[in-house]
Amino acid sequence: MTRYQPPQELPARLLGDPEMIEACRQRDFSQIFRLVKARAGIYPSLIARRCDMTPSRVAEVIAGQRVVKDISVVERIADGLRIPGRLLGLARREWEPSDGRHPVLPFSATVPTWMPSGPDDDGWIASAEDDLNDPQFVLSLIESQLPELYKGANFFGARQSVPSTVHHAQSIARLLERADGAAREALLRTGALVTEFLGWLCQDLGDFRTAATWSDRSMEWAQEAADDHLQSYVLYRKSHQAAAQGSAQKAVALARAAQRLPDLTPQITALAAQQEAQGYALMQNPRAALAKFDEAHDLASALTAARPDSKLDTSYCTPAYIEIQRANCWTDLGEPLRAVELLEAALATLPRVYRNDRSVYLARLARAYARAGEPESAADTATRALAIVQQTGSARTLAELDSVASAMGARSDVSAVAAFTERFQILRERLTA
């Protein structure tokens, strides 16, 4: 009988090759299988055996006739070919050593070209004398800067906060290569906060693929730190990403998963509940949506002290915030005048620092006006949003304004509508070029 042979590991030079890293980041298994064949000598028939796939299915993947999306298949491929989980956006696999013998995915491989990714980012190595060897010092510095990065993104837009936040994530990743015990747990918790924030920044800039990569990293670190609070928040964010891409079923499922974790604050549960409501609204299920919004409003109204063991800021989850989200759904559910009333009230009290969000809410208000048959009010409100987004570059706002332009497309005879449409087309071309 043939003795069992454990799967052969891929050459380190292949796992560290930029072409392989990029193929893994995109989960392009057609390219991954071709590289594995060409550079590791693992032919399709062996790929099929190791990954528990049929040879014909492997051939279809290589030919580009089949796309691998099922997470269980992705995990089988990672385990069968010994591709480290981090390369494919997965948690560390059980067979992976924790002693650093495998190549570490450069963070520059998971960010788009406008993020810092030059040689200065990955070429620097800490020496024994550097302050970076003191995790507590680095964490205290990063944690002190995060509130200002949040404020900067809220007011000036996501793009200006990205470079510093990426650098913080890189610093934490380097420290994690050597840390253990309480120091490692502290790094993981702060790292999960930083990478969750990066996921949000990328989503605001319209890069959902990179947003998902950072969110997955945040979830991995939160899980390793056994921080249920953070895990729930990341699930809520991933639900938000799904809803923004029109995936209602996924949005609801992720929001429900966020609410199942134990010992959550009312604010965390409220955020997940209103996100579940938005998924129902996308499904055109107003009864379920409004019931979850009511639940979220009651939870957000609860007065609770902040958790002493959490640095996660959910103070923005107020009853007014829940009503802003409900307003958007009223428009989608065919009652735009209700949305107008809620959004006008919310915008009147929105803190000045939330300028980036203000542009989103103004665009939603404009869409509600357009759906209500008030094109001049819609155009005037949309133009106010346009004045902000030309500085912030928010893809969220651009998407909302695109809906406004579509809703007013037949009213080019109204001078305010014609002026807005012209300005919007100019700005969209400039920001998406």
Structure, briefly:
The protein has 433 residues and is mostly helical. It is 67% helix and 0% strand.
Key phrases:
single chain, 433 residues, mainly alpha, 21 helices, 434 Repressor (Amino-terminal Domain), 0% strand
By DSSP (H or I, 4+ residues per run), the number of helices equals 21
Strand content: under 5%
**What can be said about the biggest beta sheet?**
none
Task: Compute the number of structural domains.
Answer: 4
Shape: globular
Listing every helix as H and every strand as E from the N terminus to the C terminus, the arrangement reads: HHHHHHHHHHHHHHHHHHHHH
Q: Which spans of ≥5 residues are poorly predicted at pLDDT below 50?
A: 1-6, 98-131
Our Rg estimate from Cα atoms comes to 24 Å
Q: What's the end-to-end separation, in Å?
A: 62 Å
InterPro entries: TPR-like_helical_dom_sf, TPR_rpt
Protein name: Tetratricopeptide repeat protein
Organism: Actinacidiphila polyblastidii
Structure description:
This protein folds into 4 domains: 77 residues, Orthogonal Bundle (434 Repressor (Amino-terminal Domain)), CATH 1.10.260; 97 residues; 74 residues; 100 residues, no CATH class. Helices cover 67% and strands 0% of the residues. The protein contains 21 helices and no strands. It comes from Actinacidiphila polyblastidii.
Topology:
Blueprint: H1 12-15, H2 18-25, H3 29-40, H4 44-50, H5 55-62, H6 71-81, H7 119-122, H8 135-156, H9 162-176, H10 181-204, H11 208-224, H12 228-244, H13 248-260, H14 266-282, H15 286-300, H16 319-332, H17 336-349, H18 355-371, H19 375-392, H20 395-407, H21 415-432
